[in-house]
Amino acid sequence: MKNTITLHDLSFEKFITKTNVQHAVNGVAVRLNEDYRGKCPVFLTVLNGAFLFSSELIKKFDHDCELSFIKVASYEGTQQSDEIHTVMGAEPSLKGRDVIVVEDIVDSGNTVETIIKILKDEEVASFKIATLLYKPEAYKKPYKIDYIGLEVPNDFVVGYGLDYNGLGRNLTSIYKLKESTMTNLVLFGPPGAGKGTQAEVLKEKYNLVHISTGDVFRYNIKNATELGTLAKSYIDKGQLVPDSVTIKMLNAEVEKNADAKGFIFDGFPRTEAQAEALAVLLASKNTGVSGMVALEVDDEVLVQRLLERGKTSGRADDADEAVIRNRIKVYYAETAILKGFYEKQDKYHGVDGVGTVSEITDRLSKVIDTL
Fold it and tell me: Structural domain boundaries of the chain?
């Protein structure tokens, strides 16, 4: 099994080997066999995560037993919620039975607390908690955890039943989230918002590499690189350059700056498919998008800014109000797609883009400093 894996947009590194996981399971099984000799307990498996651990325990249990399931929900992505929902209750009735609650991991203890309340309402004869993994730093509840396979630090882990947004449960080893010290920003702003100015300031302040898709295209085409020539062949035919070509250009830029502290992506992504491609690219470098930061400015302010700029910029699209309003409309259409994409990951950050350059930089910096 690989030492580093990628699930969705995140990288994980091997933390507990398959052999050590099995040793932990065996240790819990030995204690259960001793404590439940002559009894017929019910193994109450907490779905979905504990199914692998539970199946191994039952195979190693030497006495009569029964099996039941309960399903509760507390995690969304890598974030645990304080709100616990019971999706599926235990069946049949547990009244008067000796119950072994089988958990994959105990961290905050919220799930354990919810299940214990259910067991007391069911009037069980006794109950004990068995978990493969236990996070003592995160556990804040007064209830005893009776059987612990392994104690682990308060890291996000996957494998052996544990998942990240559905993936990773089938892994036989345990992996933990690989920490990244990089700050990678997707910077957006409507025409006239001052995005280019802020990109230059932020690049210097945070020692980031600014990658403008437009600049990358122009460089590759001007220098007739293999990718530039390929891109030009599509442009000359009036066709859109495929995402695969654009991603290869961006990858080349990232490779040139392997020691960078992070990147500012300007002009990319523009679609959800491009955002997913960027996530895969960054994940291959053991990092990811830290956040999408978008400057927000009222339309009328933008129009006046661009008309004023048009007096000196020499750009025809800065001098025609109808063209300006259409550019702004196109921007919002593109941004709306990406806003939804990154909002689902809690990575979208809108920042007021009205004020002096330094005032706007301060607002952006407050957001970036939290990423």
Answer: 4-177, 183-216+262-368
